[in-house]
Amino acid sequence: MRNPYLLLIFTLIGLPLTAQLSSEETTVVEGIDRRAEAYFGVAKQIWDFAEVGYQEQRSSALLQELLEGEGFTVEAGVADIPTAFTATYGSGGPVIGVLGEFDALPGITQTASPDREERIDVNAGHACGHHLFGTGSAAAAIAVKNWLQENELEGTIRFYGTPAEEGGAGKVYMVRAGLFDDVDAVIHWHPSDGNSADAASSLSNKSAKFRFYGISAHAAAAPQNGRSALDGVEAMNHMVNMLREHVEMESRIHYVITRGGEAPNVIPDFAEVFYYVRHPEMALVDANFERVVKCAEGAALGTGTTMDYEVIHGAYNLLPNVTLGEVMHENLRQIGGVEYDAEEQAFAEGIAATFENAGEADLSTAAVVEPFQVIRKGSGGSTDVGDVSWAVPTVGLRTATWVPGTSAHSWQAIAAGGTSIGKKGMVVAAKTMALTAMDLFRQPELLERARAELNEQRGTDFVYKALLGDREPPLDYRN
Amino acid sequence: MRNPYLLLIFTLIGLPLTAQLSSEETTVVEGIDRRAEAYFGVAKQIWDFAEVGYQEQRSSALLQELLEGEGFTVEAGVADIPTAFTATYGSGGPVIGVLGEFDALPGITQTASPDREERIDVNAGHACGHHLFGTGSAAAAIAVKNWLQENELEGTIRFYGTPAEEGGAGKVYMVRAGLFDDVDAVIHWHPSDGNSADAASSLSNKSAKFRFYGISAHAAAAPQNGRSALDGVEAMNHMVNMLREHVEMESRIHYVITRGGEAPNVIPDFAEVFYYVRHPEMALVDANFERVVKCAEGAALGTGTTMDYEVIHGAYNLLPNVTLGEVMHENLRQIGGVEYDAEEQAFAEGIAATFENAGEADLSTAAVVEPFQVIRKGSGGSTDVGDVSWAVPTVGLRTATWVPGTSAHSWQAIAAGGTSIGKKGMVVAAKTMALTAMDLFRQPELLERARAELNEQRGTDFVYKALLGDREPPLDYRN
Amino acid sequence: MRNPYLLLIFTLIGLPLTAQLSSEETTVVEGIDRRAEAYFGVAKQIWDFAEVGYQEQRSSALLQELLEGEGFTVEAGVADIPTAFTATYGSGGPVIGVLGEFDALPGITQTASPDREERIDVNAGHACGHHLFGTGSAAAAIAVKNWLQENELEGTIRFYGTPAEEGGAGKVYMVRAGLFDDVDAVIHWHPSDGNSADAASSLSNKSAKFRFYGISAHAAAAPQNGRSALDGVEAMNHMVNMLREHVEMESRIHYVITRGGEAPNVIPDFAEVFYYVRHPEMALVDANFERVVKCAEGAALGTGTTMDYEVIHGAYNLLPNVTLGEVMHENLRQIGGVEYDAEEQAFAEGIAATFENAGEADLSTAAVVEPFQVIRKGSGGSTDVGDVSWAVPTVGLRTATWVPGTSAHSWQAIAAGGTSIGKKGMVVAAKTMALTAMDLFRQPELLERARAELNEQRGTDFVYKALLGDREPPLDYRN
Amino acid sequence: MRNPYLLLIFTLIGLPLTAQLSSEETTVVEGIDRRAEAYFGVAKQIWDFAEVGYQEQRSSALLQELLEGEGFTVEAGVADIPTAFTATYGSGGPVIGVLGEFDALPGITQTASPDREERIDVNAGHACGHHLFGTGSAAAAIAVKNWLQENELEGTIRFYGTPAEEGGAGKVYMVRAGLFDDVDAVIHWHPSDGNSADAASSLSNKSAKFRFYGISAHAAAAPQNGRSALDGVEAMNHMVNMLREHVEMESRIHYVITRGGEAPNVIPDFAEVFYYVRHPEMALVDANFERVVKCAEGAALGTGTTMDYEVIHGAYNLLPNVTLGEVMHENLRQIGGVEYDAEEQAFAEGIAATFENAGEADLSTAAVVEPFQVIRKGSGGSTDVGDVSWAVPTVGLRTATWVPGTSAHSWQAIAAGGTSIGKKGMVVAAKTMALTAMDLFRQPELLERARAELNEQRGTDFVYKALLGDREPPLDYRN
């Protein structure tokens, strides 16, 4: 039943295998299996909705309904965000939170086919698998609730319905609103093309739209009367490109010009450029962001334009918690990865054939659990889980909901997420999170150690201050 | 025939009009007056349609219907442009052409109110007065036709329905197709805020969209794998801005960035910049355009991207014909400017109150005809009449269809063009053009002199070659 | 004796030839001829010295000695410039000034050979012919002095020894110091490759060195600690290049980077760029200069550097005085151009053979006097005579001291200026200026009209304010 | 006697302490001590000469003389470099090489004073301590020679006199010429502010001067005729600054503009920019360099200029050899660091007081030997020892010839290098290198292991190809 690779990995990394699940654990795991189809039904509805950030009304309502039906107390519209909610069960400590996302990505659609086939009813898609994320986390929360209930245990399990992860930074507003203040540990996961529970960081990120205002004039008849807002944007970009030499080398700064003038014969009186500033450490993100602002100010001064900017989002780097990570990893090892049946294997091969380097993907890795790693210097992407991880000891995993070799944000991710491959990966995640929560409820000393580890990592004079400042949630950022 | 010094005297001391119109001329002028309301009804319909370039189906059809009803032979869909047409009456020479435009401008709307009031049914408007242009020219053609008919004169009058003047260069395709090859002189006019018939040039212009193609990559995870198309655009622009020092000082080059990337976290694999290159002389436009292309090629080479470009439009500078200009000016003097009644005066004062420098406009200038000038070095804008003027001796005038102080392409222009002020200006233009055409029919030596002047200006080895090359009409450029 | 071309020109421009010089005039002209060799000896010494701006100790002393020997009262070291001086003769009004320059250009040397042959004793040369300028003007002043003296006339003739015309703006400091306050008219000339006395303007100009200060750091080990002063310079230049679109089209802005860092492995903590800002009107120069300063300020702000700038020089556009210009032109017509003997012709042909477009130069034009023109919009170069011309009615001419086709600042100019061709051109200038001064002394109404013309051109609220502000003369700018 | 910290460090890294030197080793060490003053006399002469790269005639001759006097066979002018030489003693294998540098840095001078005091006789200085480097290495070679001679051992010791390390890449030409082909191991050291013998890499580096050629023109009179070479440089730099986003993040690219035009009123027809391109891996340096070349080519194409470039120098990253590094470290531990007497302590305190962060330097670290580290990814600087290390197993150390806290290339380094502090550091290096060479002569299996390690690191298909290509040594690069 268990993946034979697991043993090998175990041998390699030299940890004792506690292969036997307890009776309580078996009950929890089997309970999830029993309701797997129903949960996937929910996920598939959210996949169908494909609602983008802060517009996830139906997706959020569906998950609220599911949890309320299970006896959770739902608080909706938290943190001034209509689609954000908490669903709480139990009383007293410890308090364990589970994160659930459900927003789709705009501009990319796909059916559940292994061939490229766009949906015609919607121009968005779950290319990051958040329909599985939200539903799988709800499944874990419900499983834990059932266990607490059946065993009449003290403690609180709380599901966080967290909107707009993709560029909307929903969780940051929820952290800022104090919604995590009474929580002892937070559990989350993410769809992926493999299975792992690393204690890994991410890049901190702060974004803003810089808007330049000039003076319009006929570009041929009287350009001397005009001040080009686009000149402002280009001067800013020029200075930022020079700035790249003068920031720590792990810094990442990137931009697109979102408004570059209307017609060539009119000097643009408005132009806009959208920046991301990232670094493994949030302190440096803030410092570098200030320097980018100076580039914008200098550009406005030099081009005779004016400038303002709106911070769009901001996220801390993820603070890995090794204490919790080891627990999560051990449970993932117990549960194992995703094994394909013949139909899934055929689907996976179909998807793999569409990869740029077709034939190089090793599909068997979907069944493998990767060795545990601690990665303190983040790279690649960013996530608003970062802010949560600085507030509460936080632990996550990723499971193979996608065919190995699949990139996040690809049509191949949408496709697999709509099939039983997505379902299986979601079930692995739900089980692993439920077992991990049970470990934490039963071993308060783990929570103490995890908290101590967090305190040490944060430093003694840490005070939380959202990178995005005091701005309101940009509820219309996807309009 | 006419005293050339009269002009001077008139303008200098502002004496009332002394010259007597001939009986035939009086008939023509009165005929236009009699049908003024009907013509304005046609113009107002086109104003209502507010159809943008190459999409003027209803406007074109309406004018075709009007002319066909008057006995003109209509040829529609000429030069591979569905909305382009010719309407011809008569036989033998001379052949006199009259140009008529009818395209609206996108993105600007206004009712016929002196206060800012957007129409809600359409997001376009006749901010350049082409509804008056097309109808007024048709009125002139019909008047000339009636005169030819009544007097059983030999000669041909031909109306050119010329679409998409605003950035679509419709006339260039019509010149390229040889539609003006048998014409002896071309007459046109343009709505304005004053009355004049200068022999004035315009800027030659050539435009193109430069498209850069890069390689997409995650901007934080693997920017080294990406090649930014936006880098290509910015490198091109940088070199063009340096190029400004090294072109003749009357050159004008301007651009907007029409596509600047999709999302900051993705290295843009596509970006686009839209350029206009202008100069008083078309030969230098072509030379400077080639240097702009070099900037684009160098940018692609240096940024590891690829580039192509599409010429969007191109127009020669207007070649003033002094022979014809003097005739036109004299007729304009005979007809005189636009005098407001009380209601119009109130409207004009209302409009003038909305000007940036409110109170500075001298409304009485609507009634004044400006002195004749010859301006060989163009400035300001460009027009596709330029290409016509290198093919055929061409002469134009402008009349006060707008309140003095009104800028072209403003909502104030739309507003006035929807009122009797617009009608009066249109009537002045129709009368002046009709009288001018009559002069040319009656005095073939004028046509000979005009042709000789054209030949001298063009030079002996002139061969027409459209600046926009052999491209097809961009029938979808307003989509 | 007279150049036959003169007659032709005369015929063309239709003026009566007053061919006969008066006896007094003949005396003056012959006096200059008699001393021509001696004067050229002085000029040749200055040519040999080849002293650059503000370092013309020997050149200045030589001219002072010459004038003092003739009875002029010399005041040396005026306007806080060691090599500036005035030399005055006579008493009472009118007061006529004559300008004399004597600085050489650095970095270019040549012997008096028609073949390229560098001098080895000095790395500078009179490529702008100022050795002739200073000496020829002194010759004119002495001739006028003799005439005043012999005829016991009232009036004052004053020679101005004006250093550092080439980028040092010597005359501006002399104007600023009030040295021209009591003068009724100023006469000057300039070496050239032809003969003319146009009432022509020049470009106004203001220059400055912009200095950026950064923070040095090892460019490979710790670039994040550095702030590149060169980044500041490049950001400024970028914004100035964009600014070119947004200034009046006759504006000229140009720069060189005079310090661009020391070694690639060190982030530059200092960099410098040297700008000229020009326009036909000094008011716009000042306005555009302020915008260039804004580019520099913006660049410093955006690149984390600091910036200051030093205005190096500044000159008004020359204000043409038509009243005086017509007098000067008439006298130049009387005197005629430069005719070559066989040896000079051979030399000229040798020089012409070195031109890029060899064979195209028409050497006979050295003998021609060009028709009179009034050119109010300056183009080409700038001169510190500009400031003088806004203080006093000023008139100049140019004579063919160089072989036709020679560019100013070329080795060919140095070569010809060291031969009898230079001498002949200088003599033409001296005679023409002397005759013009005599006309002014004898016809005070000319001075009145010239002053009235100046007042009208300046406008009523004109107050002189040097473009270079209150800076001290940059006595070390050539170090 | 030994630094008590050493024991601590030893304990930490868990190696056996072989505290007793053998009798042969004691003889060698004492021999170096006995001649320390004489060696420092040689070093001080080279310090006085302060000869820059490829101009080290007297410095090279002095070292040749020293070694020849000791019985070495000198071959001078090797690799087509007048100041490069080898000095060989012994016969048969193994062959051990010792590197000796002796070039000074231009533009920085200082006396041996702890206060800033420039020398007035020379504008260069040993701010990188190469006078100690060359002499200390010679001292080690002589000590080994004496030991071989006294014990009649087989084997060859060879000193390499390697000029122009600072930007001249002298050793690269010597590697390219095959001068290291028969060598079994190479030993080197470098002056520093501490003592260590890490197996550490450096950055690979390739540099070039990019020269742009335009067309000169008067910048005000006819800029349209000019093509600015400086535009080419700035366009190139702009594209390189954008390129920074698209290279591996450890890449370093830096430049200075070495020629930026002559005078603002002349469009520059020549401009030059000097680039360094670095990365921890030489393969990526080569790849990135090609992309920088593309930026230059694109800039030339876009600005209408032409471009060529001259590779100035190039160095591989240092390939650490752990086998040899452990041997060197163990010997350094035996010898110990530098202990100050009272006078030296006072001097050191004086120097430390001039540091930017005065008071933070811990002077006691001069006596400490740092723990052994293996650093495979280079950072900071580059050295032409890199190429040697890919040809022969190579090992180095650094010793505290400078006051702790001193930066290389600072005046403080020159100062300390001229005092007994420099002498003591040099003696530590000479002893450590001599003991290491003795180990290698006596334990051929170390050489075998070192060679095997090198082969593995290089890979099987490694073929040496100098980054600087086939260019000749730039013997005049310091002119």
TrEMBL record, chains A, B, C, D:
Keywords: Hydrolase, Signal. One of its GO terms (biological process) is folic acid catabolic process. One of its GO terms (molecular function) is para-aminobenzoyl-glutamate hydrolase activity. GO terms for cellular component: cytoplasm. Residues 1-21 form the signal peptide. Gene3D superfamilies: 3.30.70.360, Zn peptidases (3.40.630.10). InterPro entries: Amidohydrolase, Aminobenzoyl-glu_utiliz_pB, Bact_exopeptidase_dim_dom, Peptidase_M20, Peptidase_M20/M20A_hydrolases, Peptidase_M20_dimer. Residues 206-297 form the Peptidase M20 dimerisation domain. This is Aminobenzoyl-glutamate utilization protein B. It comes from Neolewinella xylanilytica.
